[in-house]
Write a structure and sequence with these properties.
Two copies of one chain form a homodimer. With 144 residues, chain A is mainly alpha-helical. Chain A has a domain at 41-111: Arc Repressor Mutant, subunit A (Orthogonal Bundle), CATH 1.10.10. Helices cover 62% and strands 7% of the residues of chain A. Chain A has helices at 15-34, 40-51, 57-64, 68-80, 102-110, 114-122, 126-143; strands at residues 84-88, 96-100. The first copy, chain A, has a two-stranded antiparallel ribbon with strand order 1-2. In chain A, strand 1 (84-88) and strand 2 form a beta hairpin. Chain A is globular and about 60 Å long. Chains A and B meet through helix 1, helix 2, helix 5, helix 6 and helix 7 of A and helix 1, helix 2, helix 5, helix 6 and helix 7 of B. The structure holds a DNA duplex (30 and 30 nucleotides).
DNA sequence: GACAATTAAATCGTGCGCGATATAATTTGC
DNA sequence: GCAAATTATATCGCGCACGATTTAATTGTC
């Protein structure tokens, strides 16, 4: 039994609530997304593409903060599910551009209700949500 | 292209910064923990045990918000690494109690510097950190 | 005290995450 | 123009996460 450092106590760490909250929120999404055979990470990628279709794997990685070792298999699964196409870029053949299929676009409508549904379901204070989002974005900016 | 709902934009969602920040912080820990052959989740479990040795798998699950399907294999790996022992509880044989080995306790000293090291490394504003922690804990309490 | 219900871990299958490395295409330097 | 460096994906291996199910022990009910 060594002397206890204040920082070593779980309750004093920022990292644990971050980790726990992230998982809890993902769990909240999961049952809603499951109806469309989507995972949470696939949903993130869809949101990126709905806003900016045709991005390359690298560009999706920059927005999602995921690398090809996660994205390549994930995008292949989404291609299998006919949500998107993977197209070699003509002018730079190293690059693979991702284009949503009609089915991928359809999901944008199908899932439109999800965010509001979660807000209602949890009735988490909107003001606190905004504060939390701002603080998280500052942290991300610093770590990225 | 369907009408864009404000909530469907990645930038307006709370869930994404939460997910991204959590991964970024884990990445920050990873190289430091790797020196001791630990993963981030194993580190969480160690912190729980340093504070409360001898807890059952269920109790560790309550504190970490992880279930046996994650904890059982993780604890077995930690047992393999001789960080802890898994002991059948005499008075209730369904229960497995987890006791740290000397090597598991030793890590408490070895890793004592990590939290401060990360604080220095990122020089993230302490006041913001506290605010963020409070907001996250409120969110967790609501979702748990 | 037998038997149904409950509880604690373990097991199984799938999909991330990510460090490390490989492969192939493009760019740079000379 | 060609070899070296760089860049974009892909591949590999391992360890989470977690829903669903199984197994074994305990508790509750009559």
């Amino acid at each position: 039994m060594s002397p206890t450092n204040d920082h070593q106590i779980l309750e004093n760490q920022l990292c644990f609530p971050l980790y726990a909250a992230s998982r809890l929120v993902t769990r909240l999404y999961q049952p809603l997304l499951e109806q469309y055979n989507l995972t949470y990470t696939q949903y993130i990628v869809l949101m990126i593409l709905w806003q900016d279709d045709g991005l390359s794997v690298k560009q999706i990685g920059e927005k999602s903060l995921l690398n090809s070792n996660t994205l390549t298999p994930l995008l292949k699964r989404m291609q299998q599910a006919q949500l998107l196409e993977r197209i070699k870029n003509k002018s730079d053949e190293r690059q693979v551009d991702i284009k949503l299929t009609p089915k991928g676009w359809q999901l944008k409508q199908d899932l439109a209700c999800i965010p509001q549904q979660l807000i209602n379901q949890t009735d988490y204070d909107t003001e606190k949500g905004k504060q939390l989002k701002t603080l998280l974005e500052q942290l991300i900016a610093q770590l990225k």
